[in-house]
Amino acid sequence: MTILGGAHLPVAAAGVLDHLVLSPATASVAAGASQAFQAEGFDASGNDLGNYTPFAIFTLPGGPCFGNVCTTAVAGSQTVTAEFAWSGGAAYGTATLNVAPLPLDSVLISPAGLSFIYAGASQSYTTEGYDVFGNDLGNATSASTFTIAPSGSCTGASCTATIVGTYTVTATATVTGKSSTASLGVLPGQIASITLTASSAWVPAGGSVLYSVTGADQYGNSLGDISAATALSITPADGYCNQATHLCGGTVASMHTVTATVGVLTATATLQITPGGLDHIAISPATSTVAAGTQQPYAVEAFDPYGNDIGSALSTTTLSIAPSGICGPYASACTATTPGAYTVTANDFGRTATASLTIVPGPPASLVLSPAVASAVAGTSTAFTAVAVDSVGNSLGDVTANTTFAIYPNGYCEPGAGCGSNVAGTYQISARYQQYIFGQATLTITPGPTDHIIVIGPGIMFAGQNATYRALAYDQYKNLIGDVTSSTSFALGTIRGTTACTGNVCSTTVAGNDGVVGNYNGLIDIESLQVTPGPLDHITLTPATANVTAGGSQGFVVDAYDQYGNAIGDQTSTSSLTIGPDGACSAGACTATKPGLHTVSAIDSGKSATASISVTAGPLDHLSLTPATATITAGGSVAYGVEGFDYYGNDLGSFTTNSSFAITPDGSCVSASCTATKAGLHTVMASSQGQRVTGSLAVNAGPLASIAIAPASVSVVVGYTQMFTAKAADAYGNALSANAASWSLSSGIPGTISPGSGTTTTFSASGSNTGTGTIKASIGSVIGTARIDVIPAPPTNLVGVVKTAKVDFTWTAAAGAKSYNVYRGTSPTNLVLLKSEFPSTSFTDNPGSGTFYYYVVALGNGGLQSAPSYMVSATFK
Has this prediction a pTM greater than 0.90? Predict the structure, then answer.
């Protein structure tokens, strides 16, 4: 049955539309989703009148319908109604749409208003869940997370806090993070502690302090001032508390504890009762005995009217002693030097106190030796006596018998015989009485009679110079008696014969070891003398002649002598060596690099000496190549020459016939002639006796010999372009410029080229014709060609419509196509030709059951094929 727009349907005759049947009859969707329905028309006898979907109006209570597609966000079971109305009546059909809510999106907390709890108690909450469209999902407490702020904690859905105030409880959907809030007020709990506060932590004796008491619950929340309901007490019992005024105090200076009591709760505070103002002082010790000159320390304590000790008053107290003596230099001590009874008085701004002090003689403090200064001859001794005195100089009598004597820095002391020394000088006599009592005296020891002499001289002198000597006399203990030079005779020589000296002045010109003899009244002493060579007079250079190879070195020794021919020694390190006509000298050795006779000169302190050295050329060190650089045309050659040199560049002559030649990266050498065919920079290498030398050979390309076109063969789709490049080369394949190439096409090829000259050109294929031909590039008589196939465009928009046992294909005609080939396969990789040279753009296939894959290829003039279309598949049951 065909329904035309604007036609009137019969309603009374058989076959007239009676009702609509919707499919699906029952459908389920998620909230917010859409469901499409089909409306099939039936007459009263149930005959199917066809599809009325395009003509029916669909409605849904919970949401809109656009054509036959209905959408709702309201969860639950709803009825979809389809109506087809005409002028003579209307037909209806219904279907059931079950709408499922979406997953949890948000929650609502309960109770949502302000709730109150006591500190530490808890409040339980629940949440109701809703999806994104507001559909109620029921209790969502288990899917919610509860938090409380600014402090407190939540365990599951139960929240608590211990600090008085107003809190915000937040319930958050675990999945989406969306939340809702409620207010929670926290009130103070029952009293659990009290705090005792004082206006001061201390008070002077006789004063009082005001106290107050506040209460708090177990979490520290304040319950305010509760002083009126509090009992106060103080310990120890010498203090007092007034319950009416809340004042506590006392007169005894000490630490007290004030206790506040409310029921079973207590709180304490410490109260330091300090002494009052100064009333009187006391000095201690009241009586004491000390040795003369010893300080007796005193303490002065201050007290208030209640007898409380205020503390030391020394800083403000002045001490004095009578009838004599001193207090100080420290203000807290007094002393006297005369034995007897004394009174010490302390005065603190008119308040006084006294103490008794007895002075007795002190213990021994030092010794006084007699004589204090004495002298004796070396080897003799002097007796000393010792008297003990106390620290202030009072004599305690002679204690020599109980005193130990010692002499420093050396010498001897014998009990009852005195002290002495064998060494002349000034000595310190030290005496010790008991353990730590000491005294001192001075003893001077003088030398005895002459026992021997000692000759003193320079010990060393230059040959030809004078040496002056002295003679000193000593006693038997080697104490110096004095200079006896004027009474002593001197002579030089104990080994090589004796030579008299002029007085005490001796001289010789012979270098070596000798001695000077002194004779004083038969007492003889010998002083050794080393005679060294005199000043430099002349030098010698050794060896006088030598032979070396270029670059080799020859060591030289410079010896020096004085005017008497005494050898001064090796002066090489202080001499300056030079070599001529060329070369260099360093550290006593000379070298030269140029062959020939050279002269070495040595200079030391203005004195000079010479030697000759013959230099010969060294072994082969390096080679030179001629020419070092050269240029040839590919295939040409260059003849080379090789010269040899030693390390210092001395020419050793031609090495050409003794050298082997090679060229890289390509080419060849025959004897000393080298050639190459590849354009570019080459390296020529000559080798002889282990030495190598290289030169640079530039090879230029030869004349044009060939032209190649890239790409050499290409397929171009109609309407497309292809760029071609001409590459020119000489006979050896060396690249040349192709800028002068002229381009042309073979006749009949569908397309054009531009530009017509240059290294590259672009071929533009015809938009509709296909064909085959060549493109040509030529420079003079040299020509290069490439093949061009202009092929059809691939078919596009391949669509297959599957019906019961067949599939209908259509595609868009391809530019340049004359016919088409259709391919089919049972997998994407095994397609074979199904239909060839098919002239139409549609095709029907009956392949049987299974899944099949297809694509189409366009054919142009001469059977030129396009690329395949994209692949499609069809499945048949």
Answer: no
